[in-house]
Write a structure and sequence with these properties.
By secondary structure, the chain is mainly α. Helix content is 68%, strand content 3%. A hairpin with a 3-residue loop joins strand 1 and strand 2. The longest helix has 37 residues. The radius of gyration is 20 Å and the shape is elongated.
Length: 200
């Protein structure tokens, strides 16, 4: 789809989905590391349910964000950006989308293959099914163990890629002095960010 020439900001839906996903990822990672440090018991079980709920939410929001992006293309990157930087930006976005969907999906595999067969109740009120066939597989313990390792690696990957994304946005705002950061920010914050950039 051709991008409109006068589009310099992401639309409100894209911004809302972006920041909801960003906050959910922070919450999911925090919950994951906190619950790993807790002994088995009611508190860990409760956090585990919240972690699953947030993870599934991220996966659904990421799919919604992709569908919205398909019908509502983002604004073009600044013409002043070198070709290699534009390529890196596009690759980073693709990798983020892959991770936002793959990480919760692998978590879904872990839960579905668990010998404990614990149900998933999103936010304590919406039942979420196990993946088909996995609960009945004879080697589901091995599958779950392997998926748990992958889940851990993906967590560190999403930290690295999201951190790079954040640092790149700051670099564009304060060093390159373009609109890459402000086009995704809520409008009421853009004035504040531009004043910060103007300070010496």
């Amino acid at each position: 789809m051709k991008k409109p020439l006068n589009k310099i900001q992401y639309d409100p839906v894209a911004k809302t989905l972006h920041w909801l996903i960003a906050l959910a990822i922070i919450g999911m990672l925090a919950l994951g590391w906190i619950m790993q440090a807790l002994p088995n018991g009611p508190d860990k079980f409760s956090l585990f349910q919240w972690h699953k709920s947030v993870g599934i939410t991220i996966m659904l929001l990421a799919v919604a964000r992709l569908l919205w992006r398909w019908r509502h293309p983002p604004p073009s990157l600044p013409l002043s950006m070198p070709r290699w930087e534009k390529t890196a930006a596009h690759a980073g976005h693709i990798l983020l989308y892959v991770l936002m969907i793959a990480m919760p999906f692998v978590g879904w595999v872990i839960v579905s293959a668990s010998p404990m067969n614990l149900p998933t109740i999103l936010y304590g009120c919406v039942p979420w099914p196990h993946l088909p066939f996995l609960p009945e597989m004879a080697n589901k313990g091995e599958i779950g163990h392997g998926a748990a390792k992958v889940h851990g690696y993906l967590a560190w990957m999403i930290v690295a890629v999201a951190s790079g994304h954040f640092i790149a946005a700051l670099k564009h705002h304060f060093i390159d002095r373009d609109n890459v950061l402000t086009r995704m920010m809520p409008q009421f914050l853009n004035g504040f960010l531009n004043r910060m950039r103007g300070l010496k």
